[in-house]
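note to self — DONT lose this again. spent like an hour looking for the file last time. sequence + predicted structure for the chain T wanted, 220 res
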Amino acid sequence: MDGRNRTLEPMSLPAHAYHLADAENWPAIQRDGLLSTAALIARAKLDTQAAAPYASYRDGGRQLPCGALIRDQRPMPPAALARCLDAGLAPQDWYDLVNAKVFFWLDDDRLARHMAACARRPQVVMVIDLARLLARHGRRAYLTPFNVGNARRLPAARGRRSFVPLAAWQATRWRSEAAGGAAPRAASHPPAELAIEHGVPDIMTYLVAARPLAGSPTDR
């Protein structure tokens, strides 16, 4: 990316958000929009037993019967999550929280790291007009202070509070995310991700650009 994701005032959020999609999912995204894992499972009409490999921890990528590819969750295995979850939450609770949302990066560096991690397969970088997206879907939007899809290497403590509703963040920044009376993060702490519950069926309405990325030759 060009490193010039300018700030959008007065929200102190960037002008653009980014979503990295597997190229094999791109035709379906253009047709049906960007849907969460839970929404894709529901659309496939899978019973509980058939849905389990997709809804529980995924140590590898999975392909739904409809053809949609779902990414692995190897950066947050159950044992690692169990050590950093708030009391009362089990790893499956966390997978359920994550599976119910679609995620967008808010800075170029995090996007670049994700691109490097997924470089084996062709990808499409979706550049999204953030102001227009939030004008329509802001009531279902959350901001996170860290990458909630990673629980390795001294992971941040986390729970439902880690998903801060957009309106709450705009009003008090990270106050609602602080745990057990601890001091909240600094108001200047930038959000790591934007998460939208269920998905964005009209995502193409907010698309600024779609940039294809070739996979490594050994996997083509």
